[in-house]
Amino acid sequence: MRSLFSPDNAVMQFIAKIFDLVVLNLIFILSCVPVITIGASISALYYVSLKMVREEDPYIWQNFWKSFRQNFKQSTIVWLLFIAISLFLGMDFYIINSQDTVLFAVVRTGLWVICGILFSMFVYIFPVISHFVCTTRQALKNAALMAIAHLPYTFLLLAGHALIVFLCTFSTKTFALVVVLSGLCGFSVFSFTACILFSSIFKKYETEEA
Question: Membrane-spanning residues where (predicted)?
Fold first, then answer.
């Protein structure tokens, strides 16, 4: 019985990990409330998640706000940039969808390709900012190159995001399920799972940086 409640017990370690993810998820949600801070919050979320995957530092609260402060300016610039580009592309789609010609069909296909590239960069950019010290231009460039260089991982990450979008739009019940799970631990579980892939990706570049 005593071994069951030992910190080294696999069951207790699993429960502790779930508790940490719930706490991390709550901190992340609270830090996103001002909206403009979402970029810095995502970077901090991935910073802590990667440390949890690598079992490097257990202090969630301290690490989250450390990354939040350090990467606030850079993450906010990138976040606002992606919002602006997304709004611009959204307007383009709105205009093009009102037309029904072969030319606009070709342009629409091109826009979807641009959206795919943009979202692939979006998937990588905040983990890159949270883990590597580089300029904003270098971070954007590195995110694009990593997305291309690690296509199998990129497709897995995009598939994970696509699954969430599908569940949100499939029905009212699945949308409610996503909302509830997101409020409990959805964001942190997703970032933790993604960081299993990012940890493998980043190892190569850590060696080069060293």
Answer: 21-48, 77-95, 102-126, 146-168, 175-202
- Residue 17 φ then ψ, to 5°: -65, -45
Q: How far is the C-alpha of 28 from the C-alpha of 51, rounded, in Å?
A: 16
Reported as a single tens digit per residue, the pLDDT across 110-152 is: 888 888 888 899 999 999 999 999 999 999 999 999 999 999 9
pTM confidence score: 0.88
Nearest 5°: phi and psi at 44? Answer: -65, -40
72-97 vs 102-131: helix axis angle to the nearest 10? 170
How many CB atoms are closer than 10 A to CB 201?
21
Closest among 160, 168, 166 to 196, alpha carbons compared: 160
Residue holding tokens 């998937």?
123
At 53-87, the pLDDT tens digits run: 998 877 899 999 999 999 999 999 999 999 998 88
Spatial neighbors of 21 by CB under 8 A, at least 6 apart, are 52, 185, 188, 189, 192
